[in-house]
Amino acid sequence: MQIEEVKFLKRKEVEKIEEMIERNYGVKVSLKDFMVFLTSKNKVKIVSKEILRRDLKNLPITSFGLTIGKLKRNNKIHLTIEGAMMCKDAKKNVILLDEENGYKFLRGERFEVKKMINCEKHNFLIVKCGEDVLGSVAYAQEGFRNLLPKSRRIIESIY
């Protein structure tokens, strides 16, 4: 197994990511309580600073940290489900679904939007159903592209 290279970010670099999130989603997110690092694939990951107090040398660590998003061109960030949850109070680039369409989204099916909140084309949007954050979509000329990984989608029971 090849170990992926990571770059731990300085405070100024972390502030740029916080600003990018605020610019794209209209919500302030503070990452100051976390160590923030960037993988070679531009994934933004966070880990508690508490990890610095632990003796990790005898642990077989293959990966660590929580991925909150992936940096994209044009100062955009594609948030993971966890990253979107950190932005639950977003005031921009949010779509609201009713319960039926929320389930369709979670199954990877076509869905209808109940309400769009300050959405920009060619950007990533947070998907919410009531107060629940479900994930994210890409908003393009053709419409929405579900970005929920297949491994995290709900599948119908065969029983």
Description:
With 159 residues, the chain is α+β, with helices and mostly antiparallel strands. The chain has one domain: Nuclear Transport Factor 2, Chain: A (Roll). 19% of the residues lie in helices and 33% in strands. The protein is built from three helices and ten strands. It has helices at residues 11-25, 81-86, 99-107; strands spanning 6-8, 34-39, 43-48, 66-72, 76-79, 94-97, 115-117, 123-129, 132-140, 143-146. It has a five-stranded antiparallel sheet. Strand 9 (132-140) and strand 10 form a beta hairpin. The mean pLDDT is 90.
Search tags:
alpha+beta; Nuclear Transport Factor 2, Chain: A; 5-stranded antiparallel β-sheet; 3 helices
Please identify, by name, the CATH architecture.
Roll
Mean pLDDT: 90
Q: What is the CATH class name?
A: Alpha Beta
Described by strand count, sense and barrel closure, the largest sheet is: 5 strands, antiparallel
Provide the helix percentage: 10-25%
The CATH topology comes to Nuclear Transport Factor 2, Chain: A
Count of helical stretches: 3
Please provide the count of β strands: 10
What is the SS-derived class? alpha+beta
The structural domain count equals: 1
Distance between the termini: 37 Å
Low-confidence runs? none
Task: Order the strands across the largest sheet as they lie in space.
Answer: 1-2-3-4-5
Radius of gyration computed on alpha carbons = 17 Å
Task: Give the SSE string.
Answer: EHEEEEHEHEEEE
Gross morphology is globular
Estimate what percentage of residues fall within beta strands.
Answer: 25-35%
